[in-house]
């Protein structure tokens, strides 16, 4: 697949999912949106599931790049700021665009039943937890860092899901406030132990 076609097909996939939902997003609609034949999609991606997998890979690449770029600009010792940068990577910019959030939601529902998509979801979850634990271990013990990382990840997922289903979209400031509040309380709680 020429590299120029992949972004075109990813964009078309997200546009069609945004317009009609994943179940109605047929190869015919996606190929029409992208201006290519259905045969090209079937040949290079093996159908709709393969194209959804490539679309999610691109979203995950963008997600990872956003977080890594944010972390690279922060001092290594700015642990709480680095945690918030990880949080922001889930709620601002590309990840908060309507087409991207609807594709994420479709991906989540499909990942329960599709092994390749389930694997991508596990990789994404492990990456998020790893980033959080690295920063949290500098502030807490290993066991506490593990618990707080899972708490922050659950808050990210819950806030993100509610925001995606809300017609006004994701409120990044509110997400940041809620997660900061949780983090502050956890740091205070564990410092008293």
TrEMBL record:
Task: Specify the pathway.
Answer: Amine and polyamine biosynthesis; betaine biosynthesis via choline pathway [regulation]
Q: Does the keyword rRNA-binding apply?
A: no
Query: Could you tell me the keywords of this UniProt record?
Result: DNA-binding, Repressor, Transcription, Transcription regulation
Q: What Gene3D superfamilies would the database entry show?
A: Tetracycline Repressor, domain 2 (1.10.357.10)
The record's section on Pfam families has: TetR_C_6 (PF13977), TetR_N (PF00440)
InterPro entries of this UniProt entry? BetI_C, DNA-bd_HTH_TetR-type_CS, Homeodomain-like_sf, HTH-type_TetR-like_transc_reg, HTH_TetR, Tet_transcr_reg_TetR-rel_C_sf, Tscrpt_rep_BetI
Tell me where in this chain the HTH tetR-type domain is found. Answer: 3-63
Top-level taxon: Bacteria
DNA-binding region(s), residue ranges: 26-45
Describe the function of this protein.
Repressor involved in choline regulation of the bet genes. Repressor involved in the biosynthesis of the osmoprotectant glycine betaine. It represses transcription of the choline transporter BetT and the genes of BetAB involved in the synthesis of glycine betaine.
HAMAP family, per database record: HTH_type_BetI
Under what name is this protein listed?
HTH-type transcriptional regulator BetI
- Give the organism, scientific name: Vibrio orientalis CIP 102891 = ATCC 33934
């Amino acid at each position: 697949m020429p590299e120029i076609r992949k972004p075109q097909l990813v964009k078309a996939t997200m546009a069609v999912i945004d317009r009609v939902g994943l179940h109605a997003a047929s190869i015919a609609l996606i190929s029409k949106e992208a201006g290519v034949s259905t045969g090209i999609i079937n040949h290079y991606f093996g159908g709709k599931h393969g194209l959804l997998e490539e679309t999610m890979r691109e979203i995950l690449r963008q997600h990872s790049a956003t977080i890594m770029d944010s972390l690279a600009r922060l001092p290594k010792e700015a642990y709480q700021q680095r945690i918030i940068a990880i949080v922001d990577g889930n709620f601002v910019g590309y990840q908060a665009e309507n087409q991207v959030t609807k594709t994420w939601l479709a991906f989540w529902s499909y990942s329960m039943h599709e092994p390749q998509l389930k694997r991508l979801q596990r990789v994404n979850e492990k990456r998020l937890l790893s980033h959080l634990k690295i920063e949290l271990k500098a502030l807490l013990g290993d066991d506490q860092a593990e618990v707080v990382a899972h708490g922050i990840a659950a808050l990210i997922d819950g806030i993100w899901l509610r925001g995606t289903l809300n017609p006004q979209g994701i409120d990044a400031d509110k997400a940041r406030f809620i997660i900061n509040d949780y983090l502050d309380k956890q740091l205070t709680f564990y410092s008293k132990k």
